[in-house]
Amino acid sequence: MSPRLSAVSEHATEPQLEPEELEVQAEQPAEEELDPEVAARRAAALAHVRKFGDPVLRTKARPVDRFDDALHDEVQRMGALMVDAIGVGLAATQVGILHRVLVYRVHQQAPVTALVNPEIEWWGDELETLEEGCLSLPNVHVDVERAVHVRVNAHNEHGEPITIEAAGLEARVLQHEIDHLDGVLVLDRISRAQRKEAMKALREALPV
C-alpha cells in the first residue's frame, strides 16, 4: 500500500508528519522531489513488486506452518523493500511469494511490523471512505470504503500469537494488505466508473 506523503526511506532524513498526512496516497512522490539516492532505491524496490496483470496478485496465499530462518529472512526482505519503495504496507503475494505474510509501518518512525497468517476477527460498524494507492497499481488512486476499527489475530515472525486492535490508518492498511493475501485488489472494491478511470491510469503507467 502506498502512503499519502512525499517522504524518504529510513536511510535518509525523514520529515515529521502528522497522522492525517499519512492517511492514504493522493499521489506518488515525484521522482524529481526525492533525493537521487532515495529515488534510485525506490525504483530498485518497486522493480521487485508485482504489478497488475501478474496472476500471483489474484492468487490466495497459503498459511505459513514453519517459523524458521527462511521466514525471518523473507520478512526482513519484505520490510526493506516496503521502506525503500516508500510504502506503508506490503503483502508477500506482491513480491511473488504465496505465503500469508504481510509487513506494515503506518508511521515512518515506527518499526516495521510483520504479521504471519493474519485474519480479521472483527470489523467495527463505523465505515469511512478514503483514497488509497497501491504499489502494485501504479498511478491508481481510488476511494475505498473500509471499517474504521478492526481486530486482527496473527503470529509474529517467531511464531508468537498476537492480536492487534487497529483504528484509522492502521486498520485501513491491514484491511488492504489482507485483501492482497486473499487475491483481492482495491479495483474490486470500487464502482464501475472508478474502475474505468483506474484502468485508464494503469494503461498509461504500465508498459505495453
Strand order of the largest sheet: 1-2-3-6-7
Please estimate the helix content: 25-40%
Largest β-sheet summary: 5 strands, antiparallel
Strand portion: 15-25%
DSSP E strands, number: 7
Distance between the termini: 23 Å
Structural class: alpha+beta
Question: pLDDT average, as an integer?
Answer: 87
Low-confidence stretches: 4-28
Shape: globular
The SSE string, one letter per element, is HHEEEEEEEHH
Radius of gyration: 16 Å
Q: Which key terms come to mind for this protein?
A:
208 residues, alpha+beta, two-stranded antiparallel sheet, 26% helix, 21% strand
Describe the protein in words.
By secondary structure, this protein is of the alpha+beta class. It contains 4 helices and 7 strands; from the N terminus they run ααβββββββαα. It has helices at residues 36-46, 69-84, 168-181, 192-205; strands at residues 89-91, 101-104, 113-123, 127-132, 142-147, 149-155, 161-167. A 5-stranded antiparallel sheet has the order 1-2-3-6-7. Strands 4-5 form a two-stranded antiparallel sheet. The radius of gyration is 16 Å and the shape is globular.
